[in-house]
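Re: [ENG-882] Designed sequences occasionally contain unexpected residues at chain ends

Forwarding the minimal case from QA. C-alpha coordinates:
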Protein backbone atom coordinates (compact mmCIF):
# COMPACT_ATOMS: atom_id res chain seq x y z
CA UNK A 1 0.00 0.00 0.00
CA UNK A 2 2.76 2.40 0.92
CA UNK A 3 4.60 1.75 -2.33
CA UNK A 4 1.49 2.50 -4.42
CA UNK A 5 0.82 5.73 -2.59
CA UNK A 6 4.40 6.88 -3.10
CA UNK A 7 4.20 6.06 -6.80
CA UNK A 8 0.97 8.01 -7.18
CA UNK A 9 2.46 10.93 -5.26
CA UNK A 10 5.55 10.91 -7.51
CA UNK A 11 3.36 10.97 -10.63
CA UNK A 12 1.42 13.92 -9.24
CA UNK A 13 4.60 15.93 -8.59
CA UNK A 14 5.89 15.14 -12.09
CA UNK A 15 2.64 16.37 -13.60
CA UNK A 16 2.85 19.60 -11.59
CA UNK A 17 6.45 20.20 -12.69
CA UNK A 18 5.62 19.53 -16.34
CA UNK A 19 2.53 21.70 -16.16
CA UNK A 20 4.56 24.50 -14.54
CA UNK A 21 7.11 24.22 -17.34
CA UNK A 22 4.40 24.55 -19.94
CA UNK A 23 3.01 27.59 -18.17
CA UNK A 24 6.45 29.22 -17.93
CA UNK A 25 7.40 28.44 -21.54
CA UNK A 26 4.01 29.52 -22.74
CA UNK A 27 4.30 32.67 -20.67
CA UNK A 28 7.52 33.65 -22.44
CA UNK A 29 5.89 32.99 -25.77
CA UNK A 30 2.82 35.01 -24.79
CA UNK A 31 5.00 37.96 -23.65
CA UNK A 32 6.98 37.86 -26.92
CA UNK A 33 3.81 37.79 -29.00
CA UNK A 34 2.32 40.60 -26.93
CA UNK A 35 5.44 42.74 -27.49
CA UNK A 36 5.26 42.14 -31.21
CA UNK A 37 1.73 43.47 -31.19
CA UNK A 38 2.68 46.70 -29.40
CA UNK A 39 4.49 49.08 -31.81
CA UNK A 40 5.94 51.18 -28.97
CA UNK A 41 7.63 48.10 -27.49
CA UNK A 42 8.86 47.03 -30.92
CA UNK A 43 10.52 50.41 -31.32
CA UNK A 44 12.17 50.07 -27.90
CA UNK A 45 13.45 46.62 -28.89
CA UNK A 46 14.91 47.98 -32.14
CA UNK A 47 16.66 50.84 -30.36
CA UNK A 48 18.27 48.45 -27.85
CA UNK A 49 19.78 46.54 -30.76
CA UNK A 50 21.24 49.81 -32.12
CA UNK A 51 22.85 50.54 -28.74
CA UNK A 52 24.44 47.06 -28.69
CA UNK A 53 25.49 47.18 -32.36
CA UNK A 54 23.44 44.04 -33.11
CA UNK A 55 22.67 44.88 -36.74
CA UNK A 56 21.47 41.44 -37.80
CA UNK A 57 18.80 41.48 -35.08
CA UNK A 58 17.78 44.95 -36.27
CA UNK A 59 17.40 43.65 -39.82
CA UNK A 60 15.30 40.69 -38.62
CA UNK A 61 12.69 43.15 -37.27
CA UNK A 62 12.08 44.80 -40.65
CA UNK A 63 9.24 44.45 -43.11
CA UNK A 64 11.79 43.60 -45.79
CA UNK A 65 9.38 44.03 -48.72
CA UNK A 66 8.40 47.57 -47.78
CA UNK A 67 11.80 48.78 -46.44
CA UNK A 68 14.12 50.81 -48.66
CA UNK A 69 17.20 48.62 -48.10
CA UNK A 70 17.63 45.85 -50.69
CA UNK A 71 19.75 43.36 -48.75
CA UNK A 72 20.88 42.49 -45.24
CA UNK A 73 24.50 43.21 -46.18
CA UNK A 74 23.65 46.73 -47.39
CA UNK A 75 21.55 47.36 -44.28
CA UNK A 76 24.34 46.27 -41.92
CA UNK A 77 27.00 48.24 -43.79
CA UNK A 78 24.90 51.44 -43.88
CA UNK A 79 23.96 51.37 -40.20
CA UNK A 80 27.30 50.18 -38.83
CA UNK A 81 29.31 52.78 -40.75
CA UNK A 82 27.13 55.62 -39.53
CA UNK A 83 26.61 54.63 -35.90
CA UNK A 84 30.19 53.51 -35.37
CA UNK A 85 31.59 56.39 -37.40
CA UNK A 86 29.92 58.99 -35.18
CA UNK A 87 30.94 56.96 -32.08
CA UNK A 88 27.35 56.66 -30.89
CA UNK A 89 26.76 55.70 -27.23
CA UNK A 90 24.21 56.13 -24.44
CA UNK A 91 21.26 55.93 -26.83
CA UNK A 92 17.85 56.53 -25.30
CA UNK A 93 14.35 57.35 -26.58
CA UNK A 94 11.57 59.20 -24.79
CA UNK A 95 8.16 60.79 -25.51
CA UNK A 96 7.00 57.68 -27.35
CA UNK A 97 3.53 58.01 -28.89
CA UNK A 98 1.87 55.53 -31.27
CA UNK A 99 -0.94 56.27 -33.68
CA UNK A 100 -2.55 53.38 -35.54
CA UNK A 101 -3.62 53.91 -39.13
CA UNK A 102 -6.64 52.46 -40.93
CA UNK A 103 -4.57 50.03 -43.01
CA UNK A 104 -3.27 48.38 -39.85
CA UNK A 105 0.09 50.19 -39.89
CA UNK A 106 1.22 52.21 -36.88
CA UNK A 107 3.26 55.43 -36.78
CA UNK A 108 5.33 55.96 -33.64
CA UNK A 109 6.74 59.38 -32.79
CA UNK A 110 9.63 59.63 -30.35
CA UNK A 111 12.61 61.70 -29.21
CA UNK A 112 16.14 60.31 -29.60
CA UNK A 113 19.06 61.31 -27.38
CA UNK A 114 22.60 59.99 -27.91
CA UNK A 115 26.23 60.83 -27.28
CA UNK A 116 28.56 61.16 -30.28
CA UNK A 117 32.13 62.18 -31.08
CA UNK A 118 30.80 65.74 -31.44
CA UNK A 119 28.81 65.75 -28.20
CA UNK A 120 25.14 65.22 -27.43
CA UNK A 121 22.59 64.86 -30.25
CA UNK A 122 18.82 65.09 -29.75
CA UNK A 123 16.03 65.03 -32.34
CA UNK A 124 12.40 63.99 -32.80
CA UNK A 125 11.53 61.36 -35.36
CA UNK A 126 8.84 58.96 -36.61
CA UNK A 127 8.93 55.22 -37.26
CA UNK A 128 6.28 53.35 -39.25
CA UNK A 129 5.38 49.72 -38.57
CA UNK A 130 3.36 47.37 -40.81
CA UNK A 131 1.19 44.69 -39.23
CA UNK A 132 0.38 41.08 -40.03
CA UNK A 133 -0.53 37.94 -38.11
CA UNK A 134 3.04 37.73 -36.63
CA UNK A 135 2.88 41.28 -35.27
CA UNK A 136 4.38 44.68 -36.15
CA UNK A 137 7.43 45.00 -38.41
CA UNK A 138 9.49 48.15 -38.99
CA UNK A 139 9.30 49.79 -42.42
CA UNK A 140 12.90 51.00 -42.55
CA UNK A 141 13.93 54.23 -44.28
CA UNK A 142 17.24 56.16 -44.06
CA UNK A 143 15.38 58.92 -42.21
CA UNK A 144 15.15 56.55 -39.25
CA UNK A 145 18.88 57.20 -38.57
CA UNK A 146 18.54 60.99 -38.90
CA UNK A 147 15.35 62.75 -40.09
CA UNK A 148 17.26 64.76 -42.76
CA UNK A 149 19.08 61.71 -44.19
CA UNK A 150 18.07 60.38 -47.61
CA UNK A 151 19.18 57.19 -49.35
CA UNK A 152 21.84 58.98 -51.45
CA UNK A 153 23.22 61.08 -48.59
CA UNK A 154 26.23 60.32 -46.42
CA UNK A 155 27.07 61.16 -42.83
CA UNK A 156 30.45 62.88 -42.72
CA UNK A 157 32.62 63.12 -39.59
CA UNK A 158 35.37 65.76 -39.65
CA UNK A 159 37.94 65.85 -36.85
CA UNK A 160 40.17 68.81 -35.99
CA UNK A 161 43.09 67.65 -33.86
CA UNK A 162 43.76 69.70 -30.74
CA UNK A 163 47.26 71.07 -30.24
CA UNK A 164 48.99 69.66 -27.18
CA UNK A 165 50.03 72.28 -24.65
CA UNK A 166 53.66 73.33 -24.20
CA UNK A 167 55.80 72.77 -21.11
CA UNK A 168 57.69 75.99 -20.37
CA UNK A 169 60.38 76.86 -17.86
CA UNK A 170 60.23 79.83 -15.48
CA UNK A 171 61.52 82.17 -18.23
CA UNK A 172 59.06 80.97 -20.89
CA UNK A 173 61.64 78.77 -22.60
CA UNK A 174 60.12 75.75 -24.33
CA UNK A 175 61.01 72.43 -22.73
CA UNK A 176 58.38 70.46 -24.68
CA UNK A 177 56.34 71.57 -27.66
CA UNK A 178 55.75 71.20 -31.38
CA UNK A 179 58.86 70.73 -33.49
CA UNK A 180 59.88 69.38 -36.89
CA UNK A 181 61.42 66.03 -37.74
CA UNK A 182 62.08 64.21 -41.01
CA UNK A 183 59.84 61.38 -42.14
CA UNK A 184 61.73 58.82 -44.23
CA UNK A 185 59.52 57.14 -46.79
CA UNK A 186 59.25 55.37 -50.13
CA UNK A 187 57.30 56.27 -53.27
CA UNK A 188 56.72 52.78 -54.75
CA UNK A 189 56.35 53.92 -58.36
CA UNK A 190 59.78 55.58 -58.34
CA UNK A 191 61.78 52.57 -57.18
CA UNK A 192 64.12 51.09 -59.80
CA UNK A 193 65.15 48.04 -57.80
CA UNK A 194 62.58 47.26 -55.10
CA UNK A 195 64.66 44.66 -53.25
CA UNK A 196 67.83 46.78 -53.25
CA UNK A 197 65.97 49.93 -52.14
CA UNK A 198 64.28 48.18 -49.23
CA UNK A 199 67.53 46.51 -48.17
CA UNK A 200 69.49 49.78 -48.08
CA UNK A 201 66.73 51.62 -46.22
CA UNK A 202 66.45 48.80 -43.68
CA UNK A 203 70.20 48.96 -43.02
CA UNK A 204 70.11 52.75 -42.61
CA UNK A 205 67.13 52.72 -40.23
CA UNK A 206 68.17 49.59 -38.33
CA UNK A 207 64.85 47.83 -38.92
CA UNK A 208 63.82 44.64 -40.69
CA UNK A 209 63.16 44.57 -44.44
CA UNK A 210 59.94 42.63 -43.70
CA UNK A 211 58.65 45.58 -41.67
CA UNK A 212 59.14 47.90 -44.64
CA UNK A 213 57.48 45.40 -46.98
CA UNK A 214 54.42 45.25 -44.70
CA UNK A 215 54.06 49.04 -44.87
CA UNK A 216 54.26 48.98 -48.68
CA UNK A 217 51.55 46.29 -48.84
CA UNK A 218 48.96 48.41 -46.97
CA UNK A 219 45.62 48.69 -48.79
CA UNK A 220 45.84 52.47 -49.32
CA UNK A 221 49.26 52.41 -50.99
CA UNK A 222 49.41 53.40 -54.67
CA UNK A 223 52.32 53.92 -57.06
CA UNK A 224 52.57 57.65 -56.29
CA UNK A 225 51.91 57.37 -52.51
CA UNK A 226 54.48 58.52 -49.99
CA UNK A 227 54.75 55.59 -47.58
CA UNK A 228 56.33 56.73 -44.28
CA UNK A 229 58.67 54.15 -42.79
CA UNK A 230 60.39 55.94 -39.89
CA UNK A 231 60.92 59.35 -38.32
CA UNK A 232 64.43 60.70 -37.82
CA UNK A 233 65.89 63.98 -36.50
CA UNK A 234 65.76 66.84 -38.98
CA UNK A 235 69.18 68.22 -39.88
CA UNK A 236 68.96 71.98 -39.41
CA UNK A 237 70.96 74.18 -41.77
CA UNK A 238 72.00 76.40 -38.87
CA UNK A 239 73.79 73.40 -37.27
CA UNK A 240 75.84 72.90 -40.44
CA UNK A 241 76.85 76.55 -40.73
CA UNK A 242 78.49 76.80 -37.31
CA UNK A 243 82.28 77.23 -37.07
CA UNK A 244 82.77 73.69 -35.72
CA UNK A 245 79.76 71.60 -36.73
CA UNK A 246 79.02 68.62 -34.51
CA UNK A 247 80.61 65.45 -35.88
CA UNK A 248 77.42 63.44 -35.33
CA UNK A 249 75.38 66.00 -37.31
CA UNK A 250 77.84 65.88 -40.22
CA UNK A 251 77.77 62.07 -40.29
CA UNK A 252 73.96 62.03 -40.20
CA UNK A 253 73.78 64.59 -43.02
CA UNK A 254 76.15 62.49 -45.14
CA UNK A 255 74.02 59.37 -44.56
CA UNK A 256 70.83 61.19 -45.52
CA UNK A 257 72.38 62.60 -48.69
CA UNK A 258 73.50 59.10 -49.70
CA UNK A 259 70.04 57.72 -48.97
CA UNK A 260 68.29 60.39 -51.04
CA UNK A 261 70.31 59.41 -54.10
CA UNK A 262 68.48 56.07 -54.16
CA UNK A 263 65.42 56.31 -56.48
CA UNK A 264 62.16 56.02 -54.59
CA UNK A 265 63.38 57.24 -51.18
CA UNK A 266 62.22 60.66 -49.98
CA UNK A 267 62.31 62.81 -46.87
CA UNK A 268 59.33 64.88 -45.77
CA UNK A 269 58.96 67.32 -42.87
CA UNK A 270 56.58 66.18 -40.14
CA UNK A 271 55.39 67.88 -36.96
CA UNK A 272 56.27 65.95 -33.80
CA UNK A 273 56.42 66.53 -30.06
CA UNK A 274 59.94 67.80 -29.41
CA UNK A 275 62.00 67.96 -26.22
CA UNK A 276 64.50 70.76 -26.48
CA UNK A 277 66.80 69.95 -23.54
CA UNK A 278 67.00 66.28 -24.57
CA UNK A 279 69.07 64.27 -22.03
CA UNK A 280 69.31 67.20 -19.62
CA UNK A 281 65.60 67.03 -18.72
CA UNK A 282 64.31 63.69 -20.02
CA UNK A 283 63.44 62.19 -16.62
CA UNK A 284 61.80 65.43 -15.53
CA UNK A 285 59.78 66.27 -18.65
CA UNK A 286 59.13 62.68 -19.75
CA UNK A 287 57.70 61.79 -23.15
CA UNK A 288 54.50 60.93 -25.05
CA UNK A 289 53.74 57.88 -27.17
CA UNK A 290 50.86 56.65 -29.33
CA UNK A 291 47.96 55.31 -27.28
CA UNK A 292 47.66 51.55 -26.89
CA UNK A 293 44.50 49.44 -26.75
CA UNK A 294 44.95 49.36 -22.97
CA UNK A 295 45.14 53.18 -22.84
CA UNK A 296 41.93 53.50 -24.86
CA UNK A 297 40.14 51.12 -22.52
CA UNK A 298 41.49 52.77 -19.35
CA UNK A 299 40.61 56.27 -20.58
CA UNK A 300 37.34 55.41 -22.30
CA UNK A 301 35.13 58.46 -22.80
CA UNK A 302 38.01 60.94 -22.37
CA UNK A 303 38.37 61.82 -26.06
CA UNK A 304 41.30 59.58 -27.01
CA UNK A 305 41.34 58.02 -30.48
CA UNK A 306 43.55 55.45 -32.17
CA UNK A 307 45.85 58.19 -33.52
CA UNK A 308 46.14 60.06 -30.20
CA UNK A 309 49.25 60.38 -28.06
CA UNK A 310 49.37 60.18 -24.27
CA UNK A 311 51.96 61.13 -21.66
CA UNK A 312 53.90 58.11 -20.47
CA UNK A 313 56.41 59.51 -17.96
CA UNK A 314 57.42 62.71 -16.16
CA UNK A 315 55.51 65.97 -16.44
CA UNK A 316 53.92 64.71 -19.66
CA UNK A 317 51.89 62.17 -17.68
CA UNK A 318 51.56 64.25 -14.50
CA UNK A 319 49.80 67.06 -16.42
CA UNK A 320 48.21 64.87 -19.11
CA UNK A 321 44.66 66.20 -18.56
CA UNK A 322 45.77 69.81 -18.86
CA UNK A 323 48.12 69.27 -21.81
CA UNK A 324 46.01 67.00 -24.06
CA UNK A 325 43.19 69.35 -25.08
CA UNK A 326 39.98 68.24 -26.83
CA UNK A 327 39.73 67.49 -30.55
CA UNK A 328 37.16 69.43 -32.53
CA UNK A 329 34.50 67.41 -34.34
CA UNK A 330 31.71 68.11 -36.81
CA UNK A 331 29.08 65.57 -37.85
CA UNK A 332 27.08 66.62 -40.89
CA UNK A 333 24.97 65.22 -43.71
CA UNK A 334 26.30 65.68 -47.24
CA UNK A 335 24.52 64.91 -50.52
CA UNK A 336 25.77 62.69 -53.34
CA UNK A 337 27.92 65.57 -54.68
CA UNK A 338 29.57 66.20 -51.32
CA UNK A 339 27.61 69.37 -50.58
CA UNK A 340 26.80 69.95 -46.92
CA UNK A 341 23.06 69.71 -46.23
CA UNK A 342 22.91 70.06 -42.47
CA UNK A 343 25.06 69.91 -39.34
CA UNK A 344 23.99 67.27 -36.84
CA UNK A 345 26.51 68.16 -34.10
CA UNK A 346 29.58 70.34 -33.65
CA UNK A 347 32.21 70.38 -30.91
CA UNK A 348 34.84 73.15 -31.25
CA UNK A 349 38.51 72.31 -30.86
CA UNK A 350 40.04 73.14 -27.50
CA UNK A 351 43.84 73.20 -27.43
CA UNK A 352 45.73 71.94 -24.40
CA UNK A 353 46.96 74.32 -21.72
CA UNK A 354 50.57 75.50 -21.48
CA UNK A 355 52.25 74.41 -18.24
CA UNK A 356 54.73 76.82 -16.63
CA UNK A 357 57.14 75.27 -14.14
CA UNK A 358 59.76 76.67 -11.73
CA UNK A 359 62.68 74.99 -13.52
CA UNK A 360 65.36 77.24 -15.06
CA UNK A 361 66.31 75.61 -18.36
CA UNK A 362 69.85 77.02 -18.42
CA UNK A 363 70.53 75.88 -14.86
CA UNK A 364 69.03 72.47 -15.67
CA UNK A 365 71.47 72.06 -18.59
CA UNK A 366 74.42 73.27 -16.53
CA UNK A 367 73.66 70.88 -13.69
CA UNK A 368 73.31 67.98 -16.12
CA UNK A 369 76.67 68.74 -17.78
CA UNK A 370 78.37 68.72 -14.37
CA UNK A 371 77.09 65.28 -13.37
CA UNK A 372 76.13 63.51 -16.63
CA UNK A 373 78.75 60.79 -16.15
CA UNK A 374 77.74 60.06 -12.55
CA UNK A 375 75.00 57.77 -11.28
CA UNK A 376 72.82 59.92 -9.05
CA UNK A 377 70.37 62.78 -8.84
CA UNK A 378 71.00 66.49 -8.42
CA UNK A 379 68.69 69.30 -7.37
CA UNK A 380 69.00 73.08 -7.15
CA UNK A 381 66.56 74.97 -4.91
CA UNK A 382 65.79 78.60 -4.27
CA UNK A 383 66.63 78.78 -0.53
CA UNK A 384 64.16 81.62 0.07
CA UNK A 385 61.08 80.17 -1.64
CA UNK A 386 61.78 76.43 -1.83
CA UNK A 387 61.21 76.48 -5.61
CA UNK A 388 62.90 73.70 -7.54
CA UNK A 389 65.16 75.37 -10.12
CA UNK A 390 66.78 72.22 -11.54
CA UNK A 391 66.16 68.51 -11.11
CA UNK A 392 68.43 66.04 -12.86
CA UNK A 393 68.83 62.26 -12.96
CA UNK A 394 72.06 60.90 -14.43
CA UNK A 395 73.05 59.15 -16.59
CA UNK A 396 70.21 59.97 -18.95
CA UNK A 397 68.68 59.33 -22.40
CA UNK A 398 67.18 61.40 -25.23
CA UNK A 399 63.40 61.42 -24.75
CA UNK A 400 62.97 62.46 -28.41
CA UNK A 401 63.86 58.88 -29.39
CA UNK A 402 60.63 57.64 -27.79
CA UNK A 403 58.56 60.04 -29.93
CA UNK A 404 60.34 59.40 -33.22
CA UNK A 405 60.62 55.69 -32.54
CA UNK A 406 63.73 53.63 -31.92
CA UNK A 407 65.00 50.40 -33.40
CA UNK A 408 65.66 47.23 -31.43
CA UNK A 409 69.38 47.94 -31.05
CA UNK A 410 68.70 51.34 -29.44
CA UNK A 411 66.12 49.86 -27.08
CA UNK A 412 68.44 47.01 -26.11
CA UNK A 413 71.35 49.39 -25.54
CA UNK A 414 69.28 51.46 -23.11
CA UNK A 415 67.97 48.46 -21.19
CA UNK A 416 71.25 46.56 -21.05
CA UNK A 417 73.37 49.54 -19.99
CA UNK A 418 74.67 48.80 -16.49
CA UNK A 419 74.40 52.51 -15.60
CA UNK A 420 70.60 52.25 -16.09
CA UNK A 421 69.95 55.52 -17.97
CA UNK A 422 66.18 54.94 -17.97
CA UNK A 423 66.12 54.77 -14.17
CA UNK A 424 64.70 57.96 -12.64
CA UNK A 425 66.84 58.44 -9.55
CA UNK A 426 65.17 61.56 -8.16
CA UNK A 427 61.83 59.74 -7.87
CA UNK A 428 63.22 57.07 -5.57
CA UNK A 429 62.73 57.18 -1.78
CA UNK A 430 65.86 57.05 0.34
CA UNK A 431 66.68 57.55 4.02
CA UNK A 432 68.33 60.97 4.61
CA UNK A 433 71.61 59.24 5.63
CA UNK A 434 74.69 61.44 5.69
CA UNK A 435 72.78 64.55 4.65
CA UNK A 436 71.40 64.62 8.21
CA UNK A 437 74.82 64.67 9.91
CA UNK A 438 75.29 68.47 9.66
CA UNK A 439 71.85 68.87 11.30
CA UNK A 440 72.97 66.70 14.26
CA UNK A 441 76.19 68.73 14.49
CA UNK A 442 74.32 72.06 14.47
CA UNK A 443 71.90 70.93 17.20
CA UNK A 444 74.72 69.54 19.38
CA UNK A 445 76.70 72.78 19.18
CA UNK A 446 73.60 74.91 19.78
CA UNK A 447 72.49 73.07 22.94
CA UNK A 448 76.07 72.72 24.23
CA UNK A 449 76.14 68.91 24.18
CA UNK A 450 79.73 69.06 22.84
CA UNK A 451 82.17 71.45 21.21
CA UNK A 452 83.75 71.30 17.77
CA UNK A 453 87.11 70.29 19.28
CA UNK A 454 85.86 67.52 21.59
CA UNK A 455 87.64 64.27 20.68
CA UNK A 456 85.13 61.40 20.76
CA UNK A 457 87.91 58.78 20.60
CA UNK A 458 88.94 56.35 17.91
CA UNK A 459 86.70 53.26 18.05
CA UNK A 460 87.92 51.64 14.84
CA UNK A 461 85.37 50.76 12.15
CA UNK A 462 82.64 49.32 14.40
CA UNK A 463 81.16 50.41 17.74
CA UNK A 464 78.20 49.93 20.02
CA UNK A 465 77.19 51.78 23.17
CA UNK A 466 76.98 48.67 25.38
CA UNK A 467 75.70 45.09 25.40
CA UNK A 468 72.09 46.31 25.55
CA UNK A 469 72.36 46.87 21.79
CA UNK A 470 72.72 43.11 21.28
CA UNK A 471 74.20 42.25 17.87
CA UNK A 472 73.70 45.78 16.47
CA UNK A 473 76.83 47.89 15.83
CA UNK A 474 77.39 51.23 14.14
CA UNK A 475 79.95 50.93 11.33
CA UNK A 476 81.99 53.50 9.42
CA UNK A 477 84.38 53.45 6.47
CA UNK A 478 87.45 55.38 7.66
CA UNK A 479 89.91 55.14 10.58
CA UNK A 480 91.33 58.59 11.43
CA UNK A 481 92.49 60.83 14.28
CA UNK A 482 91.72 63.13 15.98
CA UNK A 483 88.00 62.29 16.07
CA UNK A 484 86.70 65.86 16.16
CA UNK A 485 83.76 67.47 14.34
CA UNK A 486 85.71 68.76 11.32
CA UNK A 487 87.25 65.36 10.57
CA UNK A 488 83.96 63.56 11.27
CA UNK A 489 82.28 65.67 8.57
CA UNK A 490 85.16 65.11 6.15
CA UNK A 491 85.07 61.33 6.60
CA UNK A 492 81.27 61.15 7.10
CA UNK A 493 81.84 59.18 10.31
CA UNK A 494 78.73 57.26 11.36
CA UNK A 495 80.16 56.39 14.77
CA UNK A 496 80.93 60.04 15.64
CA UNK A 497 77.40 61.20 14.84
CA UNK A 498 75.79 58.24 16.63
CA UNK A 499 77.70 59.33 19.74
CA UNK A 500 76.74 62.97 19.09
CA UNK A 501 73.03 62.05 18.97
CA UNK A 502 73.35 60.17 22.27
CA UNK A 503 75.05 63.16 23.88
CA UNK A 504 72.19 65.42 22.76
CA UNK A 505 69.56 62.99 24.02
CA UNK A 506 66.26 61.94 22.46
CA UNK A 507 64.08 64.60 24.12
CA UNK A 508 66.38 67.49 23.34
CA UNK A 509 66.92 66.25 19.79
CA UNK A 510 63.18 66.06 19.09
CA UNK A 511 62.58 69.53 20.54
CA UNK A 512 65.31 71.01 18.35
CA UNK A 513 64.09 69.57 15.03
Amino acid sequence: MRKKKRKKHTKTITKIVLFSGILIGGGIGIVTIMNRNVPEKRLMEYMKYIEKGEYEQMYAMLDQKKSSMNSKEEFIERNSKIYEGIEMSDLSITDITAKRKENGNAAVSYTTNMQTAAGNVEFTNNAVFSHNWTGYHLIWQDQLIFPELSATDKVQVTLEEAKRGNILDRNGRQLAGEGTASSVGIVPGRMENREDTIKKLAEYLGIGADEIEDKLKAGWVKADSFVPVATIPKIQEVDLLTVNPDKTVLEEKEKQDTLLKIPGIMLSDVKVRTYYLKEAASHLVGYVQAVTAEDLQEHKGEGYRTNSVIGKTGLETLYEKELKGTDGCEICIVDANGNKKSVIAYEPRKDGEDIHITIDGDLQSTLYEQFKEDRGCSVALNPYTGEVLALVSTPSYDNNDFVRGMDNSQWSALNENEDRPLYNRFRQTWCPGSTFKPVIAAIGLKVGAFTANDDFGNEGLAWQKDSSWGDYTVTTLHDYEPVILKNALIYSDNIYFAKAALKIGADQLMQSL
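QA comment: On inspection the terminal residues look reasonable. The domain at 433-512 is CATH 3.40.710.10 (Beta-lactamase). Proposing we downgrade this to a documentation issue.
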